[in-house]
Amino acid sequence: MKTVEVPLGDRSYPIYIGQGLLDQGELLQRHVPGKRVLIVTNETVAPLYLERCRAALTSGGSGLQVEAVILPDGEQYKSLDVLQKVWDKALESRLDRNSTFIALGGGVIGDMTGFAAAAYQRGVHFIQVPTTVMAMVDSSVGGKTGVNHPLGKNMIGAFYQPKVVLVDVDTLNSLPDRELASGISEIIKYGLIRDPALFEWLEANMERLLARDAEAMSYAIERSCINKAEVVSADEREGGVRATLNLGHTFGHAMEASQGYGVWLHGEAVAAGTVMAADMSLRLGWIEPSVASRATDLLKRAKLPTEPPKGMTQDDFRSFMAVDKKVLDGDLRLILLRGPLGNCVFTGNYDPAALDATLDNAVL
Ligand code: NAD
Ligand code: MG
C-alpha cells in the first residue's frame, strides 16, 4: 500500500492506494471517530461494492452501525433534489454530529456526499472511497464538493476536506473502458502541467494502464495524487496555481456544454481541449512542436478524442467560453503550455490572433 499525505494543517489527511484495501476494515475504521456511518453510493456501484464496504466497517467487532443510501446513477442526478435523499436518510436514522458519511463511487457520488456532509448539522465527518479513475486522481482529493444547478454545473457547493481517501485499485476492474480513458486524460494533464517524468512514464506505460495492470495503475494514481496534493496545499481555494489543474478544461467545457452534458465524458472533452490548448501555445511560440505532438499522440494512445465533436462551430466555442469562471474583467484567461514539457501558465495576456487561429483550425 502507498500513502500520499495531503498537507492542509489541521485538516491534513492521507490517501491510501493499493489492491484489496476495501477488505482491510481497519484502514477505514481508524478514521471513523463515532459509532454511526452512512454510506452513500449509487445503483451501479451498490451491487458491486456496497456489501464489501459495509463488511469492512463492521469487521473485527468494530460495533459500528452502518446505514446506506443508494442514489440513481448519472450526472443528471447531481442535484439538490436528489441530495435531499441523503439528508432524509441521515435524519430518519437519527445520525448525530459525530457521524461519518462515506462516498462510495465516482466523482458524482463523491461531490454530492461531500456537500451533504459539509451541510448536515453544519458538518459531519467525511470519507472518500473513489471507484473511478477520475475520482481517484482528481475529484476525491482537494475538497471541492457540490451539486449542479439547472443554470450551471457545480454551481452550488462548498470546500470540505475528507478525513481519508481510500483507493482500492481492484475496483477499477469493473469500470467501463470509456470511463477508464476519461480518467487517464486527467493523469496526462498532470504530466503536461507540472510533471514531465510522469508524462514520460505514461509514454512508456500507456498500454499497461489501459490493461488495468494494478501496479501501473497504483503508480499513476499515486503520482497524480502527489501532484494534486501539492497544488491544493499551495492554493486550497483556487486563488492562483490551482487554476492550472484546468488545462484543456475551458475548451473542453464548451464542448461538453454545446452537446449537452453526458454525450461526451468530462475527460474526453478535456482531451480534445488539451490538444487545442497545446495548439494555441504552439502558435504563440511558447512551446516546441514536439511538446504539442507528444501530447496529442499520448491522448490518442489512451483512446481519447483529439478533435472537438463534429458540427461544433467557432460561435459555439465563443459563446460557451464567454461564461467560463476564468473570465476576469472581460478577459478570457487560459491555461497554456509554456517552456519545456511539464510547464504551463495561467494567463489572459496572449495575442488573441492565436486563439482565433486555434478555433479556426479546430472546427474545420
Ligand atoms: P461518475 O461518478 O458519473 O462515474 C462514472 C460512471 O461509472 C457512473 O455510471 C458510475 O456509476 C460508474 N462507476 C463508478 N465506479 C464504478 C466501478 N468501479 N465499476 C463500474 N462502474 C462504476 O463520473 P466520474 O468521471 O467519476 O466523475 C465525474 C464527476 O466528478 C463530475 O460531476 C465532475 O463535476 C466531478 N469532478 C469533481 C472534481 C472535484 O474536484 N471535486 C474534479 C473532477 C471531476
Ligand atoms: Mg477535470
Automatic annotation (TrEMBL):
Residues 69-181 form the 3-dehydroquinate synthase N-terminal domain. Keywords: Amino-acid biosynthesis, Aromatic amino acid biosynthesis, Cobalt, Cytoplasm, Lyase, Metal-binding, NAD, Nucleotide-binding, Zinc. It catalyses: 7-phospho-2-dehydro-3-deoxy-D-arabino-heptonate = 3-dehydroquinate + phosphate. The keyword Aminoacyl-tRNA synthetase does not apply. One of its GO terms (molecular function) is metal ion binding. It is found in: Cytoplasm; Plastid, Chloroplast. Pathway: Metabolic intermediate biosynthesis; chorismate biosynthesis; chorismate from D-erythrose 4-phosphate and phosphoenolpyruvate: step 2/7. Its cofactor is Co(2+); NAD(+). GO terms for cellular component: chloroplast. Residues 183-327 form the 3-dehydroquinate synthase C-terminal domain. One of its GO terms (biological process) is aromatic amino acid family biosynthetic process. Its EC number is 4.2.3.4. Catalyzes the second step in the shikimate pathway. Belongs to the sugar phosphate cyclases superfamily. Dehydroquinate synthase family. This is 3-dehydroquinate synthase. It comes from Coccomyxa subellipsoidea (strain C-169) (Green microalga).
